[in-house]
Amino acid sequence: MVLIKLDPQAEMKGTDGAQAVGSSAVLHRHLSEDFLVLSKSEGNYLILEDGRRVFDASGGAAVSCIGYRNKRVADAAYRQILDAPYCSTVFYTTKVQEELCRFLVDSTGGQMARAYIVNSGSEAMEAAIKLARQYFIEVKPSQPQRTRFISRRQSYHGITLGALAMGGHMYRREKFEPLLMKNVSQVSPCNESRFKAPTKTNEEYVAELAQELDEEFRKVGPETVCAFVAEPIVGAAQGCVPSVPGYFKAMKAVCDKYGALLIFDEVMCGMGRSGTLHAWQQEGVVPDIQTIGKALGGGYQPIAGLLANHKVIDGIAKGSSVFVHGHTYQGHPACCAAALEVQRIIQEESLVANVASMGRLLSQGLKRRIGNHPNVADIRGRGLFWGIEFVSDKKSSTPFPEEIHVAMVISKLGLDPKYGINVYPGAGSADGRLGDHIIISPAFNIQKEDVEWIVETVGRLVDDYFATLQV
Ligand code: PMP
After folding, report:
1. What are the recorded GO MF terms, alphabetically (predicted)?
2. How high is the pLDDT of residue 178?
3. Residue 21 — very low, low, confident or very high, per pLDDT cuts 50/70/90?
4. Helix, strand, coil % in the chain, rounded to nearest 5
């Protein structure tokens, strides 16, 4: 296979192969690259410093949900900054935090008892891990030996050390191994197109995965397991992969059998992104703890959180009654005000219903336009959360070599004015079995014309990129 030069970092490399250092003062992830400068964003467009206008078809990292430059949200945050910009939540709460948590708890139809507000998805996951641990320390008879977690390979739960240990996104985690948190083991993810044997029915596949989880519990000692942790729709690590019907019911049954908690990470797929406010509402399963992020604040402020059910909250209330956790900026009033306004807009404009209907059009359109493309292995997702997986050979499902960064280059090519589209790239997994993918996760308020434009533009992008690869 001859590859034409489309290495996103090629121009940054020195003649001796060493990486040149970019001119930015910011400690970026890629030190060698000078990043594009975003000067403005409005509606669903990003406006770059060089004048380029780019349609944000991934809402950043599946964050933007009502578009940018919403004056109502800006005013709400501004008013709150003037009224009470900061609140030390050790001593006080604020009306706006109370209102946001009430909204979140009520949105679960009584399933969840309390909400906890932090500033990022990783913090939310750290809080979830500690809340689950503390629950077992508090409940009587005391079960303090429950210190282990079981999660899934090819998952992502955040970048801080605890959350990283929980995840299976090898590119983001392997450099830091051995991780500080050693009491996590992992089982297989549920990915029908990649890992289900073609001869197996969905029921057989679910039974096989439930059996694997059951065996993992028995292997590590069921009385030592605190919780099973999973994303209802796997985001960054696989590219919008929902599970097959019945999977989470079967996994929860295993957790129940051994008395462990179920934690859902809905940081990326939650708060309306999947076509229901909570992704678990499509699974017929309610977690004990759920984390949320991204679409909670739609990008207007850094905000994330967790919801815990009555069992967990009552357990802690009957114990020490203190969740031994906290951050200086948790429950930040301006963040809460912005998120509350975002959620009000989503409700008033029935945007979750729009996610479901536009999502149907998007998936049909993408499948029609590029479903038969020889390098498109799979198009999957829910709501406005769709992943397109690329392979070099469709029959054998062989991924492209990692070093040509297929998804990264496609995403970068999308910014060319010929296309003017922002899509979110994801690398193939380090275990070599998943292909690269891009994520399409636009704002919840997109209309039919936007969907048609996205489908056609992604189609052209994929056609043009692969036409430059000479085999
Ligand atoms: N969990 C999931 C499922 C995520 O997708 C992410 C972020 N991509 C996180 C946790 C971490 O969130 P943050 O980047 O806000 O810390």
Report:
1. transaminase activity
2. 85
3. low
4. 40, 20, 40
pLDDT band, very low/low/confident/very high, at 13 (cuts 50, 70, 90): very low
Q: Which atom of ligand 1 is nearest to the CA of 123?
A: 16
Contact 228, 161 (CB under 8 A): no
Burial-class residue 318 by CB neighbours within 10 Å (0-12, 13-18, 19+). exposed
Indicate the domain borders of the chain: 2-66+351-470, 71-348
| pLDDT over threshold 50, residue 6 | no
Q: Please give the CATH topology (third level) of the domain spanning 2-66+351-470.
A: Aspartate Aminotransferase, domain 1 (3.90.1150)
Q: Which two tokens stand for residue 248?
A: 């989470």
pLDDT tens, residue by residue, 427-445: 765 555 688 999 999 999 9
Distance separating alpha carbons of residues 341 and 337, to the nearest angstrom = 6
Question: What does pLDDT average to over the chain?
Answer: 92
How is residue 37 annotated by DSSP? P
Contacts of 155 (CB under 8 A, 6+ apart): 166, 167, 168, 169, 186, 189, 229, 230, 231, 234, 237, 238, 265
CA of 267 from ligand 1 middle (Å) equals: 6
Which of 122, 172, 441 for mutating ligand 1's site (highest number of atoms within 8 Å of CB)?
122
Joined together, the tokens standing for residue 212 give 């694997």
What is the best residue among 123, 268, 289 to mutate for testing ligand 1's pocket, by most ligand atoms within 8 Å of CB? Answer: 268
**Helix and strand element counts for the chain (H, E):** 14, 19
How many Å lie between the centroid of ligand 1 and the Cα of residue 265?
9
Residues in the chain: 471
- How remote is the CA of residue 364 from the centroid of ligand 1, in Å? 28
The pocket around ligand 1, CB under 6 angstroms, is made up of 61, 120-122, 125, 156-159, 231, 235-236, 265, 267-268, 293, 304
Cα-to-centroid distance, 273 and ligand 1 (Å) = 14
What does the pLDDT look like over 381-407, one tens digit per residue?
Answer: 999 999 999 999 999 889 998 888 999
CA of 418 to the centre of ligand 1 (A): 31
- Please give the radius of gyration of the chain, using alpha carbons only, rounded to the nearest integer: 22
Beta strands 2-3; 421-422: pairing state: unpaired
**Cα gap 342→72, rounded to integer Å:** 9
According to the CATH classification, is domain 71-348 in 1.10.530.10?
no
Q: Which of 267, 296, 330 to mutate to test the pocket of ligand 1 (most atoms within 8 A of CB)?
A: 267
pTM of the model: 0.94
Task: Quote the pLDDT of residue 435.
Answer: 83
